[in-house]
Design goal:
With 282 residues, the protein is an alpha+beta fold. It folds into two domains: 4-88, Phosphorylase Kinase, domain 1 (2-Layer Sandwich), CATH 3.30.200.20; 99-280, Aminoglycoside phosphotransferase (APH), C-terminal lobe (Aminoglycoside 3'-phosphotransferase, Chain: A, domain 2, Alpha-Beta Complex). It is built from ten helices and eleven strands. The chain has a five-stranded antiparallel sheet, sandwiched between helices. A two-stranded antiparallel ribbon has the order 6-7. A two-stranded antiparallel ribbon has the order 8-11.
């Protein structure tokens, strides 16, 4: 059920609502007003502090820098122990023959814009996990200190990594500067898997970001983690912003971060997958 206090806080003349899919931690609804629909997400304000405020900030940053469609933020706020994010409603559209080309080119154009640092102006979330984004001047320092080592330590403390695997994490982090080509920081979606994009009636659309400024190959690696996108996507990306040599060989290295996130959140085989990647690069 959607509380009356949240309905009132949206400021909408709500006629009715229906529950829709919204992920693991959110309750999501389609809100109906006179002649218009909206998408509403609700979760615990105490369990995930300022999550939707940070998501709204990320969506705004993407919309200001990207020619892909980004859902418009209507309103976000908190009512007692609930927080909400109200977005425009997007209907599914049919993929035309140019969909993947427009999608790949649009992401490349986002990445082409030079950012001033690696990190973000604040911490935010990736899934239900706090994503730490302290700004650094180099990708090697950021990826090691803000991504791999803290999560590897959590996995180790949960007895899912051995001491040897923790040592491999440290060895890999000491070599990041040699493993990645040096490029400018790019604004990243940060969680670009197949569940976070759609073909809406407004074209290629991305949502549910975990934004930060990082190495652009991170978005590409994430896109290949759970099935990958159509080859036309990668061809269009490479045509617009040519990828560095051996980028495909670095895909496991870019997937290490989301696999560690999944290991912390869900355990299971994710820790083993992460350990195998670290072993292969050390």
């Amino acid at each position: 059920m959607l509380s009356e206090k949240i309905i009132k806080a949206t400021g909408l003349p709500v006629e009715r609502y229906t529950r829709v899919g919204g992920g693991d931690i959110n309750n999501a609804f389609c809100i109906f007003t006179a002649g218009k629909k909206y998408f509403l997400k609700v979760n615990s304000a105490s369990q995930y502090p300022k999550m939707f405020e940070k998501e709204a900030s990320g969506l705004k940053a993407l919309s200001e820098n990207c020619n892909l469609h980004i859902p418009q933020v209507i309103k976000n706020g908190e009512v007692e122990d609930e927080q909400f994010l109200l977005l425009e409603w997007l209907d599914n559209g049919a993929k035309n023959k140019n969909f993947w080309e427009e999608f790949g080119s649009g992401l490349a154009k986002l990445h082409l814009k030079k950012q001033g640092f690696f990190g973000w102006k604040e911490n935010n979330f990736i899934g239900s996990l706090v994503q730490v984004n302290e700004q650094k001047n180099s990708w090697a320092e950021f990826y090691a200190q803000q991504r791999i080592l803290p999560l590897a330590k959590q996995v180790f403390e949960a007895n899912m990594f051995t001491a040897k695997e923790m040592k491999n994490a440290e060895l890999l982090c000491s070599a990041i500067d040699q493993l990645f080509p040096r490029e400018h920081p790019s604004l990243l979606h940060g969680d670009l898997w197949s569940g976070n994009f759609m073909c809406s009636t407004k074209g290629p659309t991305i949502f549910d970001p975990a934004v930060y400024c990082g190495h652009r190959e991170m978005d590409l690696g994430m896109s290949k983690l759970f099935g990958g996108f159509d080859n036309e996507f990668y061809e269009a990306y490479d045509h617009t912003y040519p990828l560095e040599k051996d980028w495909q060989k670095r895909i496991p290295l870019t997937q290490l971060y989301p696999l560690l996130v999944h290991a912390v959140l869900f355990g299971g085989g994710y820790a083993s997958s992460a350990a195998n990647i670290m072993r292969s690069f050390t």
